[in-house]
Design a protein that fits this description.
Elements lengths: L1 H19 L1 H14 L5 E7 L5 E7 L24 H8 L7 H6 L4 E3 L28 E3 L12 H14 L2 H17 L11 E4 L6 E5 L1
Parallel strand pairs: 3-4
Antiparallel strand pairs: 1-2, 5-6
Helix pairs in contact: 2-3
Length: 214
């Protein structure tokens, strides 16, 4: 029953957020476009509910072609490929706001397992039967794994946390995750990559990635 209520809440609050945050969208879009050449919105293939592939939206935070320089697909602290505007929108998680459109389209939810890349940490056929249960819920902008370690959690443990969320999903758990996420964002906690435990931004369907992301 809650999954239907959850979807209704996603539609209502994503619409409200898109209207209320429209000035932020305009200012961020102008800032990204003014600082460096390239598309304002970054699109990347991810695995969604049922393992279905969809394109996630983000504000671009790195220079175009950044995956060919520096540390490749992984971005660490003080990565000079990240633009000045990019550093700000990453630190404040403003880069994630375009995912409100993904929510409105039904591809994502506010709360749910963070959608992995189609090939990282591994392809869908490499997930075990138990691990695939994380795809029973719509992916979220934030989730249980994100508020329990975020970028410092090894992938097997992260998937375990996602499966736990699927088994315990409720309104009160989502509210708890929401408040924990606000604290994480305000304190910028666990927001630095710690080795190859993380997802990477992909500029094409051929594993060309801009950087590691949340």
């Amino acid at each position: 029953m809650y999954k239907y209520v959850k979807r209704l809440l996603d539609i209502v609050f994503s619409l409200i957020a898109l209207v209320f945050l429209s000035p932020v969208f305009l200012i961020t879009s102008a800032a990204v476009a003014a600082e460096s050449k390239g598309p304002v919105i970054f699109k990347q293939e991810r695995l969604g509910k049922g393992g279905k592939v969809f394109k996630i939206y983000k504000f671009r935070s790195m220079r175009v072609g950044a995956e060919h320089t520096g540390s490749g697909v992984y971005s660490g602290k003080n990565d000079d490929r990240v633009t000045k505007v990019g550093k700000i929108i990453r630190a404040t998680s403003i880069d994630e706001l375009p995912q409100l459109v993904n929510i409105l389209k039904g591809e994502m939810s506010f709360i749910g397992p963070r959608p992995p890349l189609t090939y990282h940490p591994w392809t869908i056929d490499k997930y075990t039967k138990e691990q695939k249960r994380m795809f029973e819920a719509a992916p979220g902008i934030t989730g249980w794994a994100q508020v329990n370690g975020r970028k410092g959690v090894e992938w097997h443990r992260r998937i375990e946390l996602n499966v736990w969320y699927v088994d315990n999903m409720s309104l009160w758990l989502d509210i708890k995750i929401l408040f924990m996420t606000v604290f994480k964002v305000l304190s910028n906690a666990d927001n630095v990559n710690t080795g190859k435990t993380l997802e990477s931004e992909n500029e094409s369907d051929n594993k060309k990635s801009e950087s590691a992301v949340k």
